[in-house]
């Protein structure tokens, strides 16, 4: 975020609840809403603070970036928090994202395994770093290839900060609307970051029942195709 950033979180709906029981609540976070509060009163509104106002014992177990939309699970009891954090730490939770990236991908699927570290000169940005970076692995699959952009499915094996954005950038295909890493033309190619946490698979923290939660997004239709003409946002350019 730059110095000119003004936080204006969406308020409708206040909470988009996908599932709820005594142990967990699962929500569809909109783009533009923090998962957890930032520093200072101007950044106090967040998905977690909204849940916490209704469920006093709620505990955060993972997060999505401000601009990323999609599925977030929040624990409603301490025991559920411990168990869900264990599942995330042991990489038992399966995550599936949808993104629209610039350019034509030469292979329809593959893996990206560049190690990532904080960029000390531009925090909170990350960078590829083979000396100090932590292992990061992303699997990708092209779902729809257009003339100069593509809808891709991204499955992160690890959960590093900005992993999907930086991995796709390093592959040569920045995510449209990415204010952190995309060049100006690709940033301006969409009205928001086109990255969405489409589904989350985990075990219920009490019953151990396998669960899968999915959330729709504004840029992909129920048939799995781009909902609005992405190409109209792209300026004439070849990546």
UniProtKB/TrEMBL annotation:
Q: What does this protein do?
A: Dual specificity enzyme that catalyzes the synthesis of pseudouridine from uracil-746 in 23S ribosomal RNA and from uracil-32 in the anticodon stem and loop of transfer RNAs.
Instruction: Establish whether keyword Ion transport is in the entry.
Output: no
| CDD domains, sorted | PseudoU_synth_RluA_like (cd02869)
From the UniProt record, list the reaction(s) this protein catalyses: uridine(746) in 23S rRNA = pseudouridine(746) in 23S rRNA; uridine(32) in tRNA = pseudouridine(32) in tRNA
Q: What class of enzyme is it?
A: isomerase
Mind giving the lineage of the organism this protein is from?
A: Bacteria, Pseudomonadati, Pseudomonadota, Gammaproteobacteria, Chromatiales
- Keyword Cell membrane assigned: no
GO MF term (any one): RNA binding
Enzyme Commission identifier(s) = 5.4.99.28, 5.4.99.29
Entry keyword set: Isomerase, rRNA processing, tRNA processing
Q: What is this protein called?
A: Dual-specificity RNA pseudouridine synthase RluA
Similarity comment: family membership: Belongs to the pseudouridine synthase RluA family.
Which Gene3D superfamilies is this protein grouped with?
Answer: Pseudouridine synthase
- The source's domain of life comes to Bacteria
